[in-house]
Amino acid sequence: MFASALAVAIAFSIASISHAAEIGAQTNRIGVYDSRIIAYAYFWSESYQQKIKELAKSAKEAKAVGDMVRFRDMEAELKNEQDQNHLRVFSTAPVDSILALMQNRVDEVQRTTRVGRLVSKWDAPTLTQFKQAEQIEVTDALLRDFRLNEKQMKVIADIRKQKPLPLEKAQELLRKGKL
């Protein structure tokens, strides 16, 4: 009885040490991604395009029946979506809400790359917190489930070549109607 209890305790200790080592390795590795590319791919996703079509349809219907309050609400929501897309694709606005919608893919990327966390390559404050961590590029792995055509992939290639606008500058341009 004592021997089997000892064997179980040893096995548990080995498993705990192995798990702790894996967790430690993951905190020494972070996945970095280009948030602009994730935002652009999500914009063209079927689910997002459907959401925008439904908003536009609701706005059109509200206007047709003279419900100007609802029409203005829908119009404001569409404008907000457009502004958020511009800040994400042309600048460095966070894409946390997009990543939350693709949590299964995020989990798979973290598991297969053995990274403890994903961080936008433009998020300098967070990257500073992990300056000792090995950075693993995961943008393409995150893109895998998006069905992008050749033209969209070319745009992504072009986005990769460009530096993003600083977020404050992009917000200023947006306020002036120039973004």
Dominant shape = globular
**Number of helices, counting only DSSP H or I runs of 4 residues or more:** 10
What's the rounded overall pLDDT mean? 88
Structural class of the secondary elements?
A: mainly alpha
Count of all domains: 1
Radius of gyration: 22 Å
Helix content: over 70%
Report the sheet-strand fraction: 5-15%
Please count the beta strands (DSSP E, at least 2 residues each): 3
Task: Calculate the terminal CA-CA distance, rounded to whole Å.
Answer: 73 Å
Order of helices and strands: HEHHHHHEHEHHH
Q: Which strand order spans the largest sheet, edge to edge or round the barrel?
A: 2-1-3
Largest sheet: 3 strands, parallel
**Low confidence ranges:** 5-26
Layout of secondary structure:
Elements: H1 2-27, E1 29-33, H2 35-43, H3 46-64, H4 68-90, H5 96-101, H6 103-113, E2 117-120, H7 124-129, E3 134-137, H8 139-143, H9 150-161, H10 167-175
Helix pairs in contact: 2-4, 2-9, 3-4, 4-10
Describe the structure concisely:
With 179 residues, the protein is mainly α. The chain is built from ten helices and three strands.
Descriptors for this entry?
10 helices, 179 residues, 3-stranded parallel β-sheet, globular, mainly alpha
Provide a descriptive summary of the structure in words:
By secondary structure, the protein is mainly α. The protein has one domain (2-175). Helices cover 70% and strands 7% of the residues. It is built from ten helices and three strands, in the order H-E-H-H-H-H-H-E-H-E-H-H-H. A three-stranded parallel beta sheet has the order 2-1-3. It starts with a helix and ends with a helix.
